[in-house]
Amino acid sequence: MSPAIVMTFIYAVLSMVGGVIGYQKAGSKPSLISGVITGVLLLIAGVGLLQAAVWGSWLAIAVSLLLVITFIIRLIKTRKFMPAGLMVIVGVATLIALFPLI
């Protein structure tokens, strides 16, 4: 399994778990909804990558880029590493793994 596929699945799980934790700790429904939606989209992208479908890499890049931008903005606003900093680091690592597939 390629690093791009592994990183996409890791980012998917991290996104979903983060959404659930955000809901449990702060009662944030937007965190839950966005975490689950982006996580599912990344899982779908990962399946596409497993099947060597071009759309899988583009979907993974689009969702990862959206998450990285969102969490950079959040990191700047809150200046708290968790969870924004972690999501930025994993997102950038995912994008780096995905770019050779384009």
TrEMBL record:
InterPro entries: TMEM14, TMEM14_sf. It comes from the Bacteria. The keyword Transmembrane helix applies. The keyword Transmembrane applies. GO terms for cellular component: membrane. The chain crosses the membrane at residues 6-23, 32-52, 58-76, 83-101. It is found in: Membrane. Gene3D superfamilies: Transmembrane protein 14-like. Keywords: Membrane, Transmembrane, Transmembrane helix. Pfam families: Tmemb_14 (PF03647). This is Small integral membrane protein. The lineage of its organism: Bacteria, Bacillati, Cyanobacteriota, Cyanophyceae, Leptolyngbyales.
